[in-house]
Design goal:
The chain is an alpha/beta fold. It has two domains: 150 residues, Rossmann fold (3-Layer(aba) Sandwich); 62 residues, no CATH class. The chain contains eleven helices and four strands. It has a four-stranded parallel beta sheet with strand order 2-1-3-4, sandwiched between helices. It is globular, with a radius of gyration of 35 Å.
Amino acid sequence: MKMLLKKSYWKVLIIVFVLFCFQTPLVFAQQIRVVATFPDLADITRQIGKELVNVESLATGVEDAHGVPVKPSFVPRLNRADVLILIGLNDEHSWIPALLEVANNSKILPGRPGYIDCSLGISVLEVPIRMDRAEGDLHPNGNPHYLLDPVRAKIVAQNIATGLTRNFPQHQQAFDKNLKAYVAELDNWIVRWEKAAAPKAAPVPTRLARVRLCALASVLVLITTPSASRHPARNIEISLAPLLFCIYSSLLKKNKVGFAQSFHSVLNH
């Protein structure tokens, strides 16, 4: 019995050793810790980094972008982060700079490799000519809400892939592959969204539908004319005018001009 247990013990050790030696580096490599300021940036980063990244978003998506309530849990997240991904254009100016001061992480400070500004290369809109409070809420560097345009998400994805590669060049091939797949899928969705948003021509009503609408108009004229009680015959004549006009128009469209002219002559007598 002891010999059997001893043999089983050594078999288990050998199997564990073999598995350890032949495991891919991804299993044992620590994931890249990414902190994004907003959920949309976090989602794009997950598509680019896949299993290589562990992504957290500070905001939940329901807060005012310019005034996200700061939580104590933000500080340790930023302290452990390998990279920080931001909208930029001063969109996070009211809360991120103060957090970076206390996070004590030089890797993600502005100007360092871990600071990934997604606004690079974006054609900025609504850049104010002059700064005046009389103009209301202004964005000094232009409108930072560029991700409302899905086409610009492709630029954001490229900036994220570039930033990740800058910090972890050993994974460039994986980042480039995932970026290409993400942009291709996004392009397919953009085509679908453009078709859905395209103006649609109003449906042309059928002859039967036009007759029904005219009949409804006749009824409405009949019940809303004030002189109904004084001149009932004249009131009915007026109320039937929309219906008769509709029938007359239909006859003309069917090229039955001879009959339509006869019908018109009857109406004139």
